[in-house]
Specification:
Chain A is of the alpha+beta class and about 160 residues long. In chain A, about 45% of the residues lie in helices and about 25% in strands. Chain A has one domain: Dynein light chain 2a, cytoplasmic (Beta-Lactamase), CATH 3.30.450. Chain A is built from four helices and six strands; from the N terminus they run βαββαβββαα. By secondary structure, chain B is an alpha+beta fold. Helix content of chain B is about 40%, strand content about 30%. The model of chain B has no long low-confidence stretch (mean pLDDT about 95). Classes of the chains: A alpha+beta (about 160), B alpha+beta (about 120).
């Protein structure tokens, strides 16, 4: 059974609706730094970490390319394969910018993913609580936070 | 809209009762060209109709009656028509309830020919 899990509970329902409607196989919601807030469909923590790091890096790279072209940013990026497509998009939220990485198969399409992504952005913005005060990141907490997050994302 | 497809789509929208027409990529569900009213969410219609057409195609093949070559979906206040065209394009029409479906279909065939 494919599971959707969110570290922050306000993401869960909008993400479940998005995954069902868009027919997404895998989805990550994360910060531009690659910190994962929610995932759907992943079964291994190592895959989540790799996908988040690579997705964040792709967005970072394309942002620099956009600057070179005089664009503020590219809002969405789609890579189409034979059996799978990857949709990577940035969205504004009250918590600051977030990234979504969506992997879809032949039963869906980039058009469907784009369509329901608009709904996801709107629903996340409606569901997002007031911003929490940021706390300084210290090296000692980093690994513990990472492990806690991964445990939450896989229901451990 | 691409000028290449304008005459074909204009031919469809001239049919009485047609609210809009689109050329859509059947695998991606993206709009190639459209002539729809501003109130119509062309992108949403394109994505959902392409998905519907793909599933309907699977249903007709599973039923042993071959690929779907025309879809007529009657709704409460109108109709949605779809027809495959060459090169993975789908001709989609949004129409009112009392549209002359035969005439609309004829113009959709002409639009499909224009894609060739």
């Amino acid at each position: 059974m494919t599971v959707t899990r969110a570290i922050e509970p306000w993401i869960q329902d909008p993400l479940v609706r998005f995954v069902n409607e868009a027919g997404a196989r895998l989805t990550l919601i994360m910060t531009p730094a690659g910190q994962v807030l929610a995932q759907h469909g992943f079964t291994r923590a190592v895959d989540v970490m790799a996908a988040a790091a690579l997705g964040a890096a792709i967005v970072s790279s394309t942002r620099e390319m956009a600057k070179t072209l005089g664009e503020e940013t590219f809002t969405a990026l789609n890579h189409q394969g034979v059996r799978h497509g990857i949709f990577l998009a940035e969205m504004a939220s009250p918590r600051g910018p977030l990234l979504a990485l969506v992997v879809y198969g032949s039963e869906s399409s980039v058009g469907l993913v784009q369509l329901f992504f608009e709904d996801l952005v709107r629903e996340l913005n409606e569901a997002c609580p007031e911003e929490e005060p940021t706390r300084p990141a210290i090296a000692a907490d980093f690994e513990r936070d990472l492990n806690d997050s991964l445990a939450s994302l896989f229901g451990r | 809209m691409s000028e290449k497809f304008r005459p074909a789509l204009d031919g469809i929208t001239r049919v009485r009762g047609v609210r809009g027409a689109l050329l859509v990529t059947d695998d991606d569900g993206l709009v190639v060209a459209d002539a729809v009213m501003e109130s119509v969410r062309g992108g949403a219609v394109a994505a959902l109709t392409a998905n519907l057409a793909a599933r309907m195609g699977k249903a007709t093949v599973a039923a042993g009656i071959g690929e779907a070559n025309f879809i007529h979906l009657q709704a409460e206040n109108g109709a949605l028509l779809a027809m495959p065209a060459p090169h993975g394009v789908l001709v989609v029409v949004i129409a009112e309830k009392d549209v002359n479906v035969g005439l609309a279909r004829l113009e959709m065939l002409r639009a499909a020919e224009a894609v060739r």
